[in-house]
Write a structure and sequence with these properties.
Structural class: alpha+beta
Helix content: 25-40%
Distance between the termini: 74 Å
Largest sheet: 9 strands, mixed
Number of helices: 19
Shape: elongated
Number of strands: 23
Strand content: 15-25%
Bound molecules: adenosine-5'-diphosphate, magnesium ion
């Protein structure tokens, strides 16, 4: 093909592709425009997850009728005059591209009125074609309606995710902007239902409550720091409140939501050694730096920024969050005592020691033909019926560090991780009952009402039937709350609220588990959350019962997630270690 200049339509669709990826990106640009216009109130209304309608109404300064047509031209902006301005940008927008891009892939209507214009004006754009300017009465401010996104780019439509996912992205976006701009009233209306309504009174904790539920919001630690021109405010979770991914870590830099991994790393460093491996904090952090310290023109959707002195910013974030964290974190009260009566915090067991022995154990297994039976969750039912790998009868000696059981078997010593073992026991019992379609469920004497985060509640609502099959009777109970009426009898002694919160949180972390594996997956999670924990002192009876239950399991050597439940120190190995037999 010869080289040709692209037609303006094609060129503008290519450009639009950078800015408008999904409904949430439209909402982002429109909300940013409203904030740039000084709005005190921003209402976002969507229908069908934004596919059919996204409307943003603001009470900002508005656009004079004479400039309305310009506003939707590409590279037309009121926020930038010269190239030097690029390095002292105080607005969210500056590229002059958003309205043009959105207008080229949707049916867009913009209505606006300024305080000094006698009437407002309206303009319609359809697939990039601009209609005629109409006069209209309108309050001061701007309304932008975007209908039928990607109606003229069917290929892009195919890339949209399920409605629930697109809606969540919009939810997350609006809530985060509401948090970043607590003095602005934000309202989000989804399919005629109000799902967020902030007061605009500066109370960030109230907005956090809308995002995570009152419980979590109360626990979040407020942080504030100020160091030669760099300011930081926001909330971070205490070390006891974590998630298994980084999705709840949000950074705003100069009022702009940025997806910046170095900033996240700085935060994680602050938590270093305070969290278990694989756990992450929740955080909403708002950083203010002098505009010339940050280059915002590095990403088409303005989702990244570059700092002039990155190290300075990162160490500022790390130091101030760490300081807050240590100030708030109480010294642990309950330190498990190890075998020698010396207090040792959990997780301080020499890793080389346990690794070496895990390995030894694995080798032993291979020698004795025992297959490690991890990853049960892939096919729990199959596993229950095959590959029976009973452990030998064990004689219980006792518990050490409130974490491990010690037992003697025909061939040496067994150290059993009480949590992993209990997880395995619960999982097999529950799955056996499930396969037999006979999960005894126990009604609670008085039903317990549990409040969840909006997202947890929504995800849980789709799994109520599955949970019912697993023995959990739960019912919606007002906004974001559920009533637990019954639990699987197996968990009768557990805290229903803890169980439900754990489930909700897990759903958040894994939004759409495959339907055919979902029961096993949920069962695995519940068992993990409700199994006895390391650090829990067990009575001799409880220790005996656990060991007996483990002996009855079909795959006793691993927890449902594939980690070992036990370490075996064979007589042979002990003899070698003590120099009783051959060279060490
Ligand atoms: P940018 O925000 O980068 O300037 P946009 O395409 O988003 O580019 O908007 C173009 C111009 O239209 C803005 O510079 C602003 O002058 C005007 N504008 C857009 N939305 C609004 C709004 N909600 N209120 C007031 N003016 C607006
Ligand atoms: Mg803009």
């Amino acid at each position: 093909m010869p080289i040709r200049i692209l037609s303006p339509e094609v060129a503008s669709q290519i450009a639009a592709g950078e800015v408008v990826e999904r409904p949430a990106s439209v909402v982002k640009e429109l909300v940013e425009n409203a904030l740039d216009a000084g709005a005190r109130s921003v209402t976002v209304e969507i229908a069908s997850a934004g596919r059919t309608l996204m409307r943003v109404v603001d009470d900002g300064v508005g656009i004079p009728p004479t400039e309305l047509a310009l506003a939707i031209e590409r590279h037309a902006t009121s926020k930038l005059a010269s190239a030097e301005d690029l390095f002292r940008i105080a607005t969210l927008g500056f590229r002059g591209e958003a309205l043009a891009s959105i207008g080229s892939v949707s049916r867009l209507t913009i209505t606006s009125c300024t305080f000094d214009s006698p009437a407002g004006a309206r303009l319609h754009v359809e697939g990039g074609r601009i209609g005629r300017l109409e006069k209209t009465g309108a309050p001061v401010g701007t309304v932008v309606s975007v209908e039928d996104l990607f109606y003229n780019v069917p290929a892009r439509l195919k890339f949209l995710k399920q409605d629930a996912t697109e809606r969540r992205a919009i939810d997350a976006l609006v809530t985060r902007y509401a948090l970043a701009y607590p003095m602005v009233r934000f309202k989000l209306i989804e399919d005629n239902t109000i799902s967020l309504n902030t007061a605009g009174d500066g109370d960030r904790r109230a907005i956090l409550a809308a995002l995570y539920g009152v419980d979590v919001s109360r626990q979040m630690l407020e942080i504030m720091a100020d160091e030669d021109g760099f300011k930081l405010t926001g909330f971070i979770s205490p070390t006891a409140l974590t998630r298994s991914n980084r999705k709840e870590i949000t950074f705003f830099v100069n009022g702009r939501w940025v997806q910046d991994t170095p900033l996240t790393s700085a935060l994680l460093q602050a938590y270093h050694t305070l969290l278990m491996v694989g756990r992450y904090p929740l955080a909403s952090i708002f950083i203010e730096v002098p505009p010339e310290e940050v280059d915002v023109n590095v990403h088409p959707a303005k989702a990244e920024v570059r700092f002039r002195s990155p190290d300075k910013v990162f160490s500022f974030v790390q130091r101030s969050t760490r300081r807050a964290l240590l100030a708030y974190t109480p010294v642990p009260q309950l330190v498990p005592q190890n075998l020698w009566g010396v207090p040792s915090p959990p997780g301080q067991i020499d890793p080389t020691w346990s690794l070496a022995h895990d390995f030894e154990d694995e080798k032993q297994n291979q020698e004795s033909g025992i297959q490690p039976s991890g990853a049960d969750l892939q096919s729990p039912i199959l596993n229950l019926q095959s590959a029976i790998s009973h452990i030998p009868l064990l004689r219980l000696i006792g518990q050490i560090g409130a974490t491990y059981l010690v037992a003697e078997g025909p061939d040496g010593l067994y150290l059993i991780d009480q949590h992993a073992a209990h997880e395995r026991v619960l999982f097999e019992k529950l799955m056996t009952q499930f396969v037999q379609q006979n999960i005894p469920s126990q009604s609670l004497l008085s039903p317990v009402v549990v409040e969840l985060s909006r997202l947890s509640a929504e995800l849980l609502s789709t799994q109520i039937p599955v949970l019912l099959r697993l023995g959990f009777h739960i019912e919606p109970f007002g906004q974001n709350s559920y009533q637990v009426r019954a639990m699987p009898a197996l968990f009768a002694d557990s805290d229903p609220a803890a169980a439900l919160r754990a489930l909700g949180e897990d759903f958040e972390e894994d939004e759409a588990p495959l339907q055919n594996k979902i029961e096993a997956k949920i069962a695995g999670r519940v068992c993990k959350r409700l199994a006895v924990k390391a650090g829990q002192v067990l009575s001799p009876d409880e220790q005996h019962a656990l060991l007996a239950d483990l002996e009855n399991c079909t795959s006793p050597r691993t927890c449902p997630h594939g980690r070992p439940t036990m370490i075996h120190l064979s007589v042979d190995m002990l003899e070698r270690q003590f120099g009783r037999k051959g060279p060490r």
